[in-house]
Write a structure and sequence with these properties.
homodimer; 227 residues; alpha/beta; six-stranded mixed β-sheet; 6 helices; globular; binds adenosine-5'-triphosphate; binds magnesium ion
Chain lengths: 227, 227
């Protein structure tokens, strides 16, 4: 469902070039549950953003469901993102002028879902992540972990087949974090492809595949099913 | 060094009032290493912001080094913050137009430190957190964990006697997180008072005192020295 072929990402800062990804190749099969781990600064978020079509590689190919994303223009890419990919950002990226409810409704507005249906779904999603009593709070009226949970609810709004989550439990206590992992487990069992970047070693018990990143390169790929 | 006397914080949202802190009282002695834990949304960041004089309680008293903060005007409070308190924010709060180096220099500019001295110290602090090769990156050219480490370096800029850190390792891999804990340990052994809000249960091995918060109240205070 996701394939990278020798993907490189170079940030050109004038006198300095930062090689964030130095040639990444792998294939993720439909319905997998992939954990991506690696040191701070090793390229995980860069990788996930390119995978989620939020950024383009400097060179190399990215295939989503067999389609070459470099052949797509920006609007086709945006539609692909809106329909197929739910993205949880490491720094949440919520819109500060909108309430929690409105933030979760936003992807459904783009998908053309009618008002009553999307409001109902947004409420259900926020209740599922324990924020039923925070619907009308704006992001700066929410705790860090509450903002993170709004970002998770928003990623699930259009029931996308692929979920990309960048450190989704970093601001959550153990119990809230386990609630989120239960949700991901349930989504995975319903057939979705889950790809999570995390620093939490316990997540090794959740996933089926582990990809280890170091210095912009894949250090190893492991099967986790018998751990 | 820090004393709370029946501190309450109520957010008035018109038709709804959120009681983030419902009456918190405790004393932190000079040189302690306090860990604050509790569920997402329980009031930890609110508590830490009031402790760091970034916010005022709705009612109750806060004493820093015996001085009643409610008797101070905003400029006196700002000077107290700049000289005595280093604050690491849960969402970093870096200035997006400044480089990592300039962000770390900022508190020293307010303290009137001359240019050459503060630049030298900012470089040393960024090297200490492993960002010696990222001095001229702006926050959006840094990974999440790198931004977190710039926020930590900035909090230490004026060598403050009190360090307040709101989930300082949430975006760091285990190894980078341990580097930060080593720095905190060293600062503690040099006589500083360290107060860390964290969701990481391993931090229980670092601190001397544990304060557990739940629903805006203190659920328990434990001595950790024999764990
Ligand atoms: N400006 C505000 N207006 C209304 N409610 C607020 C505001 N700021 C915070 N809150 C609420 O106060 C409560 C405490 O928030 P706080 O940020 O202190 O939690 P926390 O313990 O730090 O949580 P986390 O672990 O998720 O960071 C939360 O339930 C939050 O929704
Ligand atoms: N816009 C940019 N310009 C220059 N360098 C960048 C830019 N964005 C990221 N980098 C660099 O690319 C590298 C990879 O960043 P990335 O955000 O992918 O790391 P990460 O693995 O997600 O780290 P973390 O675990 O800290 O979130 C980092 O060293 C970072 O400094
Ligand atoms: Mg990252
Ligand atoms: Mg918080």
């Amino acid at each position: 469902v996701v394939e990278f072929i020798n993907v490189k990402k170079i940030y050109d800062m004038g006198e300095v070039k930062v090689e964030a990804l130095k040639g990444i190749s792998f294939e993720i099969l439909k319905g997998d549950y992939v954990i991506i781990m690696g040191p701070s600064g090793s390229g995980k978020s860069t990788l996930l953003h390119i995978m989620g079509c939020l950024d383009r590689p400097t060179s190399g190919k990215v295939l989503i469901d067999g389609e070459d994303t470099s052949k797509m223009n920006d609007s086709k890419l945006a539609r692909l993102r809106n329909q197929k990919i739910g993205f949880v950002f490491q720094s949440f990226n919520l819109l500060s002028k909108l309430t929690a409810l409105e933030n979760v409704e936003l992807p459904m507005i783009y998908a053309g879902i009618e008002k009553r249906k999307r409001k109902k779904r947004a409420i259900e999603l926020l209740e599922m992540v324990g924020l039923g009593d925070r619907l009308n709070h704006r992001p700066n009226q929410l705790s860090g972990g509450q903002q993170q949970r709004v970002a998770i609810a928003r990623a699930l709004a259009n029931d996308p087949p692929i979920i990309l989550a960048d450190e989704p439990t970093g601001n959550l206590d153990t119990k809230s974090g386990e609630e989120i992992l239960k949700i991901f487990k349930m989504l995975h069992e319903s057939g979705k492809t889950i790809i999570v970047v995390t620093h939490d070693p316990d997540m090794i018990h959740e996933g089926k595949t582990l990809i280890k990143i170091k210095d912009g390169l894949i250090e190893g790929v492991e099967v986790l099913e018998f751990v």
